[in-house]
């Protein structure tokens, strides 16, 4: 099957990961267990996830002219990501994320954007061809909203489907949401964006409808261990979570987004793409780290087969 072309606008970070038995209280010092430097950033994670699920991926973003930038670019190339639209910012550090992972696999993250914050609409315009020629555009919000907005405008004007994962959340205009074909949000993001506190399936449905009313084409509301609520105009569907023993939830959402984009591009329905993405994300939480945890397509297929689950791809 021909590889789909996906373009991603997003961040590239080095994750500084501390493994700890529990989260420290304010003012408390505790002894950690392990420390790792692992390639991350939501944009890079989603790009790696999409490549490993069988897509040709161009990543638009920025890194600094430092050792972290060197290493991250090498890792992306090794994974097969097209970095021709990734530029470097002199005099500024590459983005970093400090991540604490506790004994239950839950994490707390502090991100310093560094060069990611210099991505501008001009950089997007310079890479417009990569957006116009893609089968979908994927964006998040670890780069400036002005750049993300410009990328979504170009995709929308070119009839390229837009997959938007607005994390970390910030205020978004109705005009921007109206250009989004697939909105992927977790419970917190859905609550903030819709104004409806999400705590269960019923409230998830209400929040999703609010977001549809704001112009979004399809809403995928991820609820971690509780599953995914999918809402389109006139249709609702809930996908149960895949039961696994969690080691680290870092990059699970990014894995879901990247795998979902590839599933759609391979001709899967929204629901089937969501199911496949759920299995990819479930595998990711069984391993430690961001990109180190993202599974390859054959691993996802074997996992789904082991659980008696199949989806049907169609030539596109």
TrEMBL record:
Keyword presence, Transmembrane: no
Domain Carbohydrate kinase PfkB, chain residue ranges per copy: 5-296
GO MF entry, a single one: ribokinase activity
Activity control note: Activated by a monovalent cation that binds near, but not in, the active site. The most likely occupant of the site in vivo is potassium. Ion binding induces a conformational change that may alter substrate affinity.
Its EC number(s): 2.7.1.15
Biological or metabolic pathway of the protein: Carbohydrate metabolism; D-ribose degradation; D-ribose 5-phosphate from beta-D-ribopyranose: step 2/2
Gene name for this UniProt entry: rbsK
Family annotation (HAMAP family): Ribokinase (MF_01987)
Binding site for K(+): 248, 250, 284, 287, 289, 293
Organism encoding this protein: Paraherbaspirillum soli
Pfam families: PfkB
InterPro entries hit by this protein: Carboh/pur_kinase_PfkB_CS (IPR002173), PfkB_dom (IPR011611), Ribo/fructo_kinase (IPR002139), Ribokinase (IPR011877), Ribokinase-like (IPR029056)
PROSITE patterns with a match to the protein in the record: PFKB_KINASES_2 (PS00584)
NCBIfam families: D_ribokin_bact (TIGR02152)
Subunit structure: Homodimer.
Cofactor detail note: Requires a divalent cation, most likely magnesium in vivo, as an electrophilic catalyst to aid phosphoryl group transfer. It is the chelate of the metal and the nucleotide that is the actual substrate.
Binding site for substrate: 13-15, 41-45, 142, 254
Function: Catalyzes the phosphorylation of ribose at O-5 in a reaction requiring ATP and magnesium. The resulting D-ribose-5-phosphate can then be used either for sythesis of nucleotides, histidine, and tryptophan, or as a component of the pentose phosphate pathway.
Main enzyme class: transferase
Protein name as catalogued: Ribokinase
Keywords carried by this UniProt record: ATP-binding, Carbohydrate metabolism, Cytoplasm, Kinase, Magnesium, Metal-binding, Nucleotide-binding, Potassium, Transferase
Catalytic residues, chain numbering: 254 (proton acceptor)
Residues binding ATP: 186, 222-227, 253-254
């Amino acid at each position: 099957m021909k590889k789909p072309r996906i373009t991603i606008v997003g961040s590239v970070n080095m994750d500084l990961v501390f493994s700890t038995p529990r989260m420290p209280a304010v003012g408390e010092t505790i002894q950690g267990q392990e420390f790792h430097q692992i390639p991350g950033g939501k944009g890079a994670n989603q790009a790696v996830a999409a490549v490993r699920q069988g897509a040709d991926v161009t990543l638009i973003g920025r890194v600094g002219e430092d050792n972290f930038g060197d290493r991250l670019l090498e890792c992306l190339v090794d994974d097969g990501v097209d970095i021709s639209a990734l530029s470097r910012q002199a005099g500024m550090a590459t983005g970093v994320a400090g991540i604490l992972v506790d004994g239950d696999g839950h994490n707390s993250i502090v991100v310093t954007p560094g060069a990611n914050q210099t991505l501008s609409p001009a950089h997007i315009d310079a890479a417009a061809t990569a957006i116009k020629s893609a089968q979908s555009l994927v964006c998040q919000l670890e780069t400036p909203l002005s750049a993300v907005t410009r990328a979504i405008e170009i995709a929308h004007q070119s009839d390229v489907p837009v997959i938007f994962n607005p994390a970390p959340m910030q205020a978004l205009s109705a005009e921007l949401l109206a250009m989004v074909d697939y909105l992927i949000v977790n419970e917190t993001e859905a609550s903030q964006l819709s104004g409806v506190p999400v705590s269960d399936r019923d409230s998830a449905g209400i929040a999703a409808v609010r977001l549809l009313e704001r112009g979004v084409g399809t809403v995928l509301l991820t609820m971690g261990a509780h599953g995914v609520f999918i809402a389109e105009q006139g249709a609702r569907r809930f996908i149960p979570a895949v039961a696994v023993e969690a080691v680290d939830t870092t990059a699970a959402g990014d894995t879901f987004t990247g795998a979902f984009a590839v599933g759609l591009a391979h001709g899967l329905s929204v629901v089937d793409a969501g199911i496949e993405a759920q299995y990819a994300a479930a595998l990711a939480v069984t391993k430690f780290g961001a990109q180190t945890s993202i599974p390859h397509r054959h691993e996802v297929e074997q996992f789904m087969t082991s659980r008696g689950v199949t989806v049907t791809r169609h030539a596109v």
